[in-house]
């Protein structure tokens, strides 16, 4: 394939990525860019070109050890649900934007430690970036069948490098606040992760099923090659130990690599995304490894004895069969893996460089007095330059140092260097005693060991057998042989360096921490880190500080970075959160921590502290005092919680009181209304009586006999009405106040109904109504007060008779047995009742609007009393009706007709 | 002969009123609710209407409103009859335009006197 053609394809591919990043950046809040899958796939930035090509090389040359790089993470990832969540919480509340921030903040916000971590990361990662460039260059040459060029200007990698540097410095520095999410980059990385996996699986399937005849075909043919068995087993104890160390090494890497810290922690915007990542990411790693074996051994079979670079088998095989499309796809997959790593790594390294090295040691002083605009510009420019120079520096390392090493070896060297952060990092999470001195000592000593046993030999040239340093040790001392330090001779160089450096690092970290306790600030942050779950909401409370500080001074500093508007807004939020009067002028510990946090994203933890410290006057606090304050704040939290509980309790009680009061007011109103209605109802018959009596009194001579009789009759009937009314009112009140007792006894419901029907038989006859009672065949017994239930049935029957169809009136009565109660239905064929009246008709004195014009004789209390009686029996009463088709009144009585009650 | 319309849903009260007003030379019409009252009013254009407030269907207040809207009934006197005897009920009745508000129970003799006074 021609160089020009491939370059055109690359340009197209990179443009698409640019576009995706651009698109995602604009939709930073959409669910397309902030979902757990994007998060999980972005973690796969772990799989670099080294994975993509190098694993095959290792599998072809030395066997299974490539697996360890994936086994380590797969083993440790389940613990993410606890550990990663913790790290994310700590980082979120402290606005941490890199691993250097994380470690240095824990050890007392130490500027020096931050710088040490940064330098170590740059040292470890730069060759790693260079390695990615090497892979791009190597594979480009293979695809285009060209030789690597010694001229910088004719080397395609140069241009790729510049393009990447531009892309990363543009998208990676969009926000001054480094702890903000960069959705564009993350989405592009996630897409690349998906693509590289797909392309890798495609080539895997191609080699396994098209070039060969499945896995078994390859293994049968490969078994004939030299050392096949040896390469495909773990081997003995020695190899087992080597395996073990590599697994541990990669476990550390998944936490500590700056790019992993960046994607997993800084770019995490929801804790719950971890839940998807812990299954999806291991699955991803697993899928990536399925086809390593067939491609590696397929290549070994095809190219036996040709001395080709096994790292590039995945390109060489399709090329061997003249499959250009596949070759280009594989190349693009590897290219994706490489550039993802380069971009994310350079962004995270540049943040560290600017926030932990350049600003705190360089121009923090000058930032203090500049305007916000200028400051932000300077910070961003410094990061842009950092990204750019990192990539360019990596380019030169690639050009002049690592041309001859395999992908795998350089990658592991990087891992070992980064692993030096492990004791300080994990100590930060779990051990409160860990101190800054311990961390610094550990990291530096570890690095020195690492330098001696690994970096130096690599620089000299691992293969140069002539070096006396390698063969005989420093100054010819046997024990100082870099690959067999103190006579440890059964570990491979990487594992060997890892073992010794880790041992020295951890031991010195522990020993120094225990021997020299740290200052109060370290102890303070130790508390905040280890007990993060306790401080997750009001973490500013946990910050211990004493001294004199004015809010206005701090505000001035904040404005230089956040601007007027954001500073005011942040202040308001703070005052609201802690319920602080806005007129207060002195700042407390909480405000100082809050202000430091606001600056941290912009300039890193160390510089934030320096800037804030410059405008406040801090009193020295002794360590015991910090411990006392922390203890107090813990107690305060407990007391606070108790107070909150008590106040909640009180609030509940007062709510209940309010509720009861409201009910009382309502009851009182109801009572008034009731009295009103009662007096009205009583006055009506009295009026009739009074009028009739007056006439009889005044005109007793002139009234015709017939009329006199009528007046007298009306007096009698209205007196009766008055009496009935009084009875019913008293009845109802007695039920309501509980003066009426219900005397339950076992009764037969059919018998009760029949005797009630008998009592109204005359009335039925007069009105020519047919009453049908569908008597159940068996006895149904229930516990109820028979006299009261007769009262209910009588009332319902009277109503039914009253409202029956004027001619051909029909009333049906039925008893229905249900699971735990019985229902009595009394149905008439009158005009029916409107749905909106189903409830109110049970109210006192409610007179249906649908009644005949002629007022029916009734007290307006019957149904109300029925409801009282039924409710006292723990039953319910209601009406069902379709207008024009009659109405059915139904009441239930709890059913006691069970065997145990008989 | 003056025409009087008695509107009440209590038959026994109506009976007494009917007897007394007839004796006092009124032409008496009876309605049992507001709707019936409106029908009769339209036909007979009575001089006096005795109106119970609490009635099914169309109540006293609504009936009064109809009367006030009818130009032909401008000179018609309206007397509210009600068991509601609170200050605010009386005020409400009078403010709506009733000429008299009589609370139940009442003296029938006095009522006749008041009606006669009104139409003179």
Fill in the CATH topology of chain B: Rossmann fold
Trace the largest sheet of chain A across and list its strands.
4-6-7-9-8
Task: Determine the number of helices of chain A (DSSP H or I, runs of at least 4 residues).
Answer: 33
Largest sheet report of chain A = 5 strands, mixed
**What is the residue-averaged pLDDT of chain B?**
87
CATH homology superfamily of chain B: Response regulator
Helix fraction of chain B, binned, reads 40-55%
Number of strands of chain A: 9
Can you tell me the CATH architecture of chain B? 3-Layer(aba) Sandwich
Report the radius of gyration of chain A as a whole number of Å: 45 Å
Task: Compute the separation of the termini of chain A in Å.
Answer: 98 Å
Helix content of chain A: 55-70%
Task: Describe the secondary-structure layout.
The complex is a heterodimer of chains A (902) and B (120).
Chain A: H1 3-26, H2 36-43, H3 49-61, H4 68-76, H5 83-94, H6 99-106, H7 111-144, H8 156-171, H9 183-211, H10 215-222, H11 228-231, H12 237-256, H13 258-266, H14 273-290, H15 292-302, H16 313-320, H17 324-367, H18 372-400, H19 407-419, H20 422-430, H21 436-460, H22 468-472, H23 493-515, H24 520-530, H25 532-535, E1 547-548, H26 551-578, H27 589-615, E2 617-618, H28 623-698, H29 705-737, E3 745-748, H30 749-759, H31 761-767, E4 770-774, E5 781-784, H32 786-803, E6 810-817, E7 821-828, H33 862-872, E8 877-881, E9 887-894
Parallel strand pairs in A: 4-6
Antiparallel strand pairs in A: 1-2, 3-5, 6-7, 7-9, 8-9
Helix pairs in contact in A: 1-9, 2-9, 2-14, 3-15, 3-17, 4-12, 6-7, 7-17, 7-18, 7-19, 7-21, 8-17, 8-18, 9-14, 9-15, 9-17, 10-15, 12-13, 12-19, 12-23, 13-17, 15-16, 16-17, 17-18, 17-27, 18-26, 19-23, 21-23, 24-28, 26-27, 28-29, 29-33, 30-32, 32-33
Chain B: E1 2-7, H1 11-23, E2 26-31, H2 34-44, E3 48-52, H3 60-69, E4 77-82, H4 87-95, E5 100-103, H5 108-119
Parallel strand pairs in B: 1-2, 1-3, 3-4, 4-5
Helix pairs in contact in B: 2-3
Catalytic activity (chain A): ATP + protein L-histidine = ADP + protein N-phospho-L-histidine
Subcellular location (chain A): Membrane
Domain Histidine kinase (chain A): 677-897
